[in-house]
Amino acid sequence: MMPCKSTDALLVIDVQNDFCPAVDGTGGALAVAEGDRVVPIINSLAKRFDHVILTQDWHPAEHISFAVTHGRRPYEIIQAPYGPQTLWPEHCVQGSAGAALHPALDIPHAELILRKGFRRDIDSYSAFLENDHRTATGLAGYLRERGLKRLFLCGLAYDFCVRYSAIDGRNLGFETII
Fold this sequence. Notes:
By secondary structure, the protein is of the alpha/beta class.
């Protein structure tokens, strides 16, 4: 890895209980197989950065992305006002144990916890833009105001939130490394 600069930031994307296997073996609502194995690596990596931002999926009850909200099955796709929307099992409900950051995540110097997906009628995979690709989360402005230009991303899960955050970060002019 390249040496960290004062203009670097680590973005830790959605390392939450619902995306990790549960201790009792049942798994979080959307558990990534062995997802909790990234936690010690992220803790170690974060020590190399002066600037660390954490994100949390933070959905209200009856969120547009929940299959149960529509009386449908998880993983079906519906047409939302902003385009196709995959329907998920209920996950990361505001204030729930599943929405909490993984208990072994140990980054006391994190500067910001950015909550995304809190609007009932729009989902958010990216840390930068809601799924309509117009509604900003405010993260780009936060980073620019602090002169942060190079972003290192890690977290759960690459196929959605990490990937969309990296794409949007790059499109917004940040040097972006996964």
